[in-house]
Specification:
271 residues, 11 helices, elongated
């Protein structure tokens, strides 16, 4: 801000009679150097340059010019008048001032509230209250055992290959199905191994790693563990991810069975 103010002041002081302000210089220095030089995202830079083109021109000093309804360029003769006008400004500017849709404010408030709730949950006591004999780790272990029992077993990839080959391995739908089954296989193995390792870590058999600690905290707070969110198919944003995983597994199993219409039994059916 100080550098931008000094730039504008220097341009005004050096004005020659009969010549106006070089708005091209102002827009470049603000949008590309003093402010734009700190912007790393291409779209943010594009937005910043758009602001400079819309706001910095000869019409800026017209009496009818407004950045937004009620946002004008003040032109007072006394310093106190400027301070009074600043005191009367809104504490929170609406998104329309910056050319955004009203949904931008809803998104901002939603994200802010989510961050606040996550911070509250992260600083809550890690130990169980004295009113129950079940510790935090015991509660998570009980939930993990229940979820592990509902987690589908891995696909038998040999049977999958046989079924899809018999149904036409080069068919576009079968190629897509095989790719989806491969992704689902990675997810199933990840979920089952994480649950098993977490149980061992709670028992003290293995070391509680950072990923396992994160999984323990998130399961205790009824949230999806971070390691699961890295797999897009599992990132549903809700704690019932195991049930959704089981539904997806069943869908793929039924699709594969439908492809193998000459098979008397469903392939890789779980026991």
């Amino acid at each position: 801000m100080d550098a931008a103010t000094a730039l504008i002041g220097g341009l005004v002081d050096d004005l020659e009679p009969g010549k106006g302000i070089s708005w091209v210089t102002v827009r470049y220095m603000l949008g590309e150097v003093q402010y734009g030089g700190r912007v790393t995202d291409d779209y943010d830079k594009r937005l910043l340059n758009t602001f400079t083109r819309v706001w910095f021109h000869d019409g800026l000093f017209d009496d009818s010019f407004q950045f937004f309804k009620g946002y004008i360029v003040y032109n007072f003769k006394e310093r106190e008048a400027y301070l009074s006008a600043i005191d009367n400004m809104f504490n929170v500017d609406p998104p329309q001032v910056y050319g955004f849709n009203s949904n931008a404010e809803m998104t901002y408030q939603t994200n802010s509230m989510r961050n606040i709730l996550e911070e509250i949950m992260s600083i809550q006591p890690k130990e169980s209250s004295s009113g129950t004999s079940e510790t935090r780790e015991d509660r998570v272990a009980r939930q993990v055992r229940e979820m592990l029992s509902k987690t589908p077993p891995p696909f038998d990839l040999f049977d999958v290959k046989q079924v899809l080959t018999a149904a036409g391995a080069t068919s576009s739908m079968n190629i897509f199905l095989r790719q989806e089954i491969d992704r689902m296989q990675r997810i199933i193995l990840l979920v089952r191994s994480t649950f098993k390792d977490l149980l061992l870590a709670v028992e003290g058999t293995i070391i509680m790693s950072e990923n396992l600690r994160d999984a323990l905290d998130n399961i205790f707070n009824a949230r999806v563990p971070t390691i699961f969110k890295r797999e897009q198919h599992l990132c549903y944003g809700s704690p019932d991810h195991v049930a959704r995983l089981d539904d997806r597994y069943s869908d793929y199993a039924v699709l594969s069975w439908d492809c193998a219409d000459n098979t008397s039994e469903r392939p890789f059916e779980r026991g």
